[in-house]
Design brief:
The chain crosses the membrane at residues 6-30, 160-179. Residues 250-463 form the Histidine kinase domain. It holds the Pfam family HATPase_c. It is an enzyme of class 2 (transferase). By secondary structure, this protein is of the alpha+beta class. Among the domains are: 5-169, no CATH class; 307-466, Heat Shock Protein 90, CATH 3.30.565. The protein is 54% helix and 17% strand. It has helices at residues 5-52, 61-71, 107-120, 147-199, 215-269, 275-301, 316-332, 355-373, 406-410, 427-438, and strands at residues 75-80, 83-89, 96-101, 125-130, 139-145, 312-315, 339-343, 350-353, 380-389, 392-399, 442-449, 452-460. The longest helix is centred in the middle third of the chain and has 55 residues, at 215-269. The radius of gyration is 49 Å and the shape is rod-shaped.
Length: 483
Amino acid sequence: MFNSLAGRVLALTVIFVMVAEILIFVPTVARFRTDYLQERLERAQIASLSILATPNDTIAPELEQELLANAGVTNIVLRRDFMRELVLTSPMTDMVAETYDLRQAGPVELISDALYVMALGGDRLIRVIGLPVQGGGTAIEITLPETPLREALISYGLRILGLSLLISVITASLLLTAVDRFIGVPIKRVIGHMAAFRDDYQNPDRVIRPESNLREFRSAEQAMSDMQVRLISALRQKDRLATLGEAVAKISHDLRNMLTTATLIADRLENSADPAVRRTAPKLINSLNRAVSLCESTLSFGKAEEAAPERRIVDLHALVDDVFDAELLVRDGGGGSRVSFANEVAPQTRIEADPEQFYRVLLNLVRNARQAMENQPEGGKVVIACDPRPGEHCITVSDTGPGLPTKAIEHLFKPFQGGQRRGGSGLGLAISAQLVLGHGGRLELAETTTAGTTFVITLPTRDLRLVAQTPISPLQTRMGGDR
């Protein structure tokens, strides 16, 4: 029950009402004790006036005991005319245990005395001093047993407790009804819509319609309605893109096979007897190679996710040499490209990474840089360096190319949008960023100007002595993606 909103509201209401009643109960009990004692003082004064009105202030012993019993006291003393006169008395079996003067008692003293009587009071004889009514002297003293006072206080406290519980239950019930009406019903309605939308999220009729009269709930319902509409739209777009992606993957797969065949046939054109054909053949082969590369990048990006990296200790200097060797083969077969490569990574620099995936990252970045500079008359240069820092390695890939265009910078690392070169897909950077992220690092554009572009790969490091020394097999050179 207390795990529900209604149960907790009920419990908290009862607790808060009881706390409020306790705060009221304490001074009320003190007031009840004061009134009880003041009433005994007034009765004692009336009894004493009866004695004083008789001749010689004498009455029969039986009448004296009856007056004391009606007043609820055992002794009455009047103070007047600077004299202290014992008016009525009865045999005392006990000594006076405590004296209470009501004439100068403050609220704190009255409260503490009342609580003491309820908690620790007992069969004691107490003296009470107060002011007479209507100026019948300077003071009046009475002696009375404490037991009736304590019983009256306890009885009064129990009545107050029962009344407090009744008020708490009634208040909690009313509040619970109001909470259920104004809060519970709207919440249940929202929950019902959420469950219905979960079971049939493609049905627009499951979208909640704001109907609550309460401003806060209406705002929540409106926000939920907007979210559901956007979610339906996003899911539909995702389904369309998934279908389109599957179709593109199939087309790319078949097209890659056809282009590979066409490339093999085009290779023979270089041996043609026609000089015009021989001059055209390299351009045709390059175009076919770019088309094959685009198909391979599309197929690679179309996978659900890259495999988790198999991290090993990698000689970064040697890995950069492998990347440059692959690009040198492409450069030398590209007809006079003057792009050069510089490996400024210190020998024996070790990093912890998946050698296959990190090779692809560097190859994509280097190939993008080479392709950006291959049409420059003065050529260009690609430099890879590594700056070991505490807790990380910063690997920079820099070129002296013309810099990235504004459109490429705006859509950097976005597939099919961040391409720099005409005809580029932009998949190379998107794939590289995902692979670096899988290593717990990040790939960022450090700067790009007309003097060149620099990308930075930041990889976290740890004590390589704790990592198993696994030999790295030579990597095969291959074609990579483009921007």
